TrEMBL record, chain A:
This is F-box and associated interaction domains-containing protein. Pfam families: F-box, FBA_3. NCBIfam families: F_box_assoc_1. Residues 1-47 form the F-box domain. The lineage of its organism: Eukaryota, Viridiplantae, Streptophyta, Embryophyta, Tracheophyta. It comes from the Eukaryota.
Length: 364, 152
């Protein structure tokens, strides 16, 4: 039989899980360099983007655990790529107590940047600091273009098409606005998001998502339908980006025994438009729920094997789910993270996010 | 209404009559049909009859229309049975799907092989793909250590 030519072997390898690909670097010198090449990592990313997955991290006793990595929560932020096990410690930054960090991606310059709140708004110091990942020396710098002053940030950020969005509360009469940070130009803009005002008391359940290309906010609350307690998903979609018009949609979820009796949160939206809900704490059995607004279907999926460690009742940990996780082999210069507990490092305590590029949301 | 038939000829001299609509799932064949050089049949010098039979079986199944109204879910189940083949046959199918430029078959065969090899040791992979190990034991150990995480 004719031997398989190298380019076809590459095609086969591009469909492997990242762990296998990294392991195959020991095949030979030729393959070690082929598997590290930009051509292959791009090919791998294309394949991986066609099968986005849910990535889970469980937090317990101050350690954040991805399937193979353990990180501890501390003051010093870290960016890590759970696919490759590489991490980068970010240089220390003086921040005020509730300062948030956001991760954004510039699709044109192909760069990741971290935007961090630093000081409360004042004339003496810049409110934000920016750090570009992938450069030789990581350092924080002040943004050149000022951000309009606001009282506090209210949500995690989401990066869509190279713009980082997050919800903030205005100074003076409290009202919601969306802060937009263009990752490439580092310019700030903002627009009204008064539709979220009635949640100013508690925005913890609200997340910003990319719903079919549009910025949206989702949260849930209990409702009532006759005798039955229902679960309602509320979604505000920025239908008109020019005029900044939001449209609100309310969905009453179909009855589901498991969902109706557990603690859950909204994890995000998949590229296919399914809203993903995830149980809050590890337990056995652990479920994730997919709600499709167009078809009004609710599907529960059992996730097995968080490991007996996390599943034991006394050990339950808070679960974070990342939707649209795509394996990415491109590696910033960084040290190898050892996966044993004895070598704990730190996770960015402000956003708990990992370096998975949000721009994958665009790939339909 | 009779559908247009074309003749495909394998490398070992066997002829197969196939509906044109089914055959043009192969981009290679589709181009030849466009260029109108199919009158005497299409010689496929790189595809043995044993493999061509499987390719034709695949294309017939994937030619979905009123006569063959199959669902995506059923196709996926069919794929699994179809790919229950010896590894060497699957490799030949990869080569054929590549040569004939049938994207979905190429994806299916490559993914099947990827799934078969993902748990294998580097030694087994070298043997499967005829890769010569040009690392010294020390060099190989160094690469392993560098990527320790992938071996746990």
């Amino acid at each position: 039989m004719e031997p398989i030519p190298n380019d076809l072997i590459l095609e086969i390898f591009s469909r492997l899980p990242a762990k296998s690909v990294i392991g195959f670097r020991t095949l030979s010198k030729h393959w070690a360099s082929m598997l590290r090449s930009p051509v292959f990592t791009e090919l791998f990313l294309t394949r991986s983007s066609n099968r986005p997955r849910l990535l889970f991290a469980a937090e317990r006793n101050g350690l954040l655990c991805f399937p193979d990595l353990w990180l501890s929560k501390d003051a010093s932020p870290v960016i890590c790529n759970p696919t490759t096990g590489m991490y980068e410690s970010l240089p220390d930054l003086m921040r005020y107590k509730n300062a948030r960090g956001f991760l954004g991606f510039d699709p044109i310059g192909k760069q990741f940047k971290v935007l961090s709140e630093a000081y409360p708004f004042s004339d003496q110091r810049e409110h934000h600091e920016i750090l570009t990942l992938g450069t030789e020396e990581l350092s924080w710098r002040s943004n050149i273009i000022s951000c309009p002053a606001y009282d506090r940030s209210l949500s995690e950020g989401i990066c869509i098409n190279g713009v980082l969005y997050y919800l903030a509360q205005t100074l003076g009469v409290p009202s919601c606005v969306i802060i937009c940070f263009d990752v490439r130009s580092e310019e700030f803009k903002y627009f009204d998001a008064g539709c979220f005002n009635d949640q100013l008391d508690d925005t913890s359940g609200l997340i910003l998502v990319n719903y079919e290309g549009k910025l949206s906010g989702i949260n849930w609350k209990y409702g009532q339908a006759g005798e039955r307690r229902t679960v309602e998903l509320r979604m505000w979609v920025l239908e008109d980006a020019e005029k900044h018009e939001w449209v609100k949609y309310v969905y009453t979820l179909p009855e589901n025994e498991v969902l109706d009796s557990c603690d859950f949160s909204v994890a995000g939206v998949t590229t296919r438009g399914d809203i993903v809900l995830c149980m809050k704490y590890t337990c056995k059995p652990f479920y994730v729920f997919y709600f499709n607004p167009e078809r009004n279907t609710l599907q529960s999926v059992e996730i097995q094997d968080f490991g007996a460690n996390l599943e034991a009742v006394e050990n339950c940990g808070r679960v974070y789910a990342f939707v649209n996780h795509v394996e990415d082999l491109r590696v910033n210069k960084g040290k190898q993270l050892k996966s044993s507990i004895s070598q704990v490092k730190h996770l960015c305590s402000c956003c708990n996010k990992v370096s998975q590029p949000d721009y994958h949301y665009q790939k339909a | 209404m009779s559908s247009k038939m074309i003749v495909l000829m394998s490398s070992d001299g066997q002829s197969f009559e196939v509906e044109e609509a089914v055959a043009i799932q192969s981009q290679t064949i589709a181009h030849m049909v466009e260029d109108d050089c199919v009158a005497d049949g299409i010689p496929l010098a790189n595809v043995e009859s044993k493999i061509l039979v499987k390719v034709i079986e695949y294309c017939k199944k994937y030619h979905v229309d009123e006569a063959n109204p199959i669902s995506e879910e059923d196709l996926n189940k069919w794929d699994e049975k179809f790919m229950d083949l010896e590894q060497s046959t699957i490799f030949e199918l990869i080569l054929a799907a590549n040569y004939l430029n049938i994207k979905s078959l190429f994806d299916l065969t490559c993914q099947t092989v990827a799934d078969m090899i993902k748990g294998k040791t580097p030694e087994e992979i070298r043997s499967t793909f005829n890769i010569e190990n040009d690392f010294t034991p020390e060099e190989e150990e160094a690469v392993r250590k560098e990527n320790q995480w992938a071996f746990e």
